[in-house]
Amino acid sequence: MRRISRFAAPLVCGGRSCATTRGDDASRTERKEDIVTPWGVAATGPRGVDYDRVLALFGSEPVDEPLLQRLEETCNGRKEHAQATSTAQEEAGRMALHHFFRRGIVFSHRDFGTALDCVRASFATGTHRAYLYTGRGPSAQSMHTGHCIPFLLTRYLQDALGLPLVIQMPDDEKHFFRDIPVSGERASGLVVENIKTSLPLASIHARHLYSATRCTWGTCTQLSCRCSAC
């Protein structure tokens, strides 16, 4: 979650992240530390992953009870609630926290409190000072659990907070990491099919925008990707 000067502050719900590779990987392996990467998790101790160390490694903060109370108050601070859905149900006139929050599945954040301040300000002024941001790399035509979890959480936040949503399709990233073509019929087909599969998880009554790098930057991106491979 980031705050961008002079721009709206995005609330990021993403399954994508960067690997934390350091020069002392060999020494870390010798110490048999936990391994947490975007592609796998391995705990070395009998009690599982040391989440305090994970938070320190990624520079994030724990999702604690005071933050959850602020989130619930912000969700219920809207004058008009979003229509109740299977992921955001109103109970006794109040919107309940998503079970990802209640069960501790979402346990870490960065600048979520700052983003909530922007959301509260938007309620007072009537102008959006925050937006939701998530996405998936166009590859396989179907969605797996890793895709669905951030989309489900984003759906809840969009229903609860009524924010605009940007869904990024980073086709240029997939070009470099998975050798997916950045131009041609296959590239266009993957983007279109991935948008179709994610639509059922988006709020159809709320505002959202799909953005693929090749569409927003056009030929410039395609040429840059080809030159980078040389």
TrEMBL record:
One of its GO terms (cellular component) is cytoplasm. GO terms for molecular function: tryptophan-tRNA ligase activity. The keyword Signal does not apply. This is Tryptophanyl-tRNA synthetase. It comes from the Eukaryota. InterPro entries: Rossmann-like_a/b/a_fold. Keywords: Aminoacyl-tRNA synthetase, Ligase. One of its GO terms (biological process) is tryptophanyl-tRNA aminoacylation. The keyword Acetylation does not apply.
